Amino acid sequence: MAETPESRVAVYIDFDNIVISRYDQVHGRGAWRKDNVYRLGPGLEGADAELKTKIDAATVDIGAIIDYATSFGTTVLSRAYADWSIGVNASYQGQLMERAVDLTQLFPATKQMKNGADIRLAVDVVEDLFRLPDVTHVVIAAGDSDYIALAQRAKRLGRYVVGVGVAGGTSKSLAAACDEFADYDAMPGVRPAVRAAVAEPDEAPPRSRRASRSADETAPTTKADARRTPAEKAETATGKKASSQLLVRALELMHERDDEDWLHTSELKRQMVRLDPAFNEKAIGYSTFGDFLASRSNIAELDDSNAQLHKVRLRRGEDR
């Protein structure tokens, strides 16, 4: 029996729209312009410590958007549109390179800093849909009502249109024009939008999560470590944590997309590979994917009622 062709996804990000919407969501409507964030140069030159703290608190997780797109199929194209000479946009270089996002440079055409991203993005989407007829899903990360016509045209061309926007910065009409619309804040792995408190000069800065993780990862070896299986010993502390986080994210995405209580393990592995093409259970010491899931029993619950159907689900919070 021939395999069903996998869905192919194209992702388009109006980068300025998402970043500005997130900043205003965290710090109040109009905060982006009030703080003159768009005037900062490379390396956030000209920003004081307080402004840098506010920018960090409103950082957008581009990986969360790309990961969400993979829940629909294989991502074959991802583009972000912005004026990359702006310091805040340039600060996302690491995130964007890590996820292989193509960058489209748009210099502002007016004194109001409008760069015409909506027109360029819309033209590219329509051109790509004719040029790449195998694209089945179009993900548009933007909340601007200017994209309503684009969403409607893509649907008429037979594509499944998914919108992504930031709460408070999204047009309801755009959400209605899409086949599906996702709130950025509700995506797995996204930090809640909380306004950052700026520390006083004589106040010691709070211990960072990075420092907390480092302390956890360097904890002394316990007697339990001596009873670990060869597969568990093959995993480094970093690799073990990364694979567990990958498993959680894949399960969360699949449960969000599917109303079924139990998921097929084969679909779960396919989703994990979409999220991280480098994932391979054999590389970390497990002969089968089932063995890997069994080692994560605190995260994944396996259904043993049917030996022929291998199913799994995310263990409920109270049981983890």
UniProtKB/TrEMBL annotation:
Source species, domain of life: Bacteria
Skewed-composition ranges (Basic and acidic residues): 224-235
Region of interest (Disordered), ranges: 197-241
Domain HTH OST-type, residue spans: 243-316
Pfam families documented for this protein: NYN, OST-HTH
A molecular function (GO) term: RNA nuclease activity
InterPro entries the UniProt entry points to: LOTUS-like, NYN, OST-HTH/LOTUS_dom
Name this polypeptide is given: OST-HTH/LOTUS domain-containing protein
Taxonomic source organism: Microcella alkaliphila
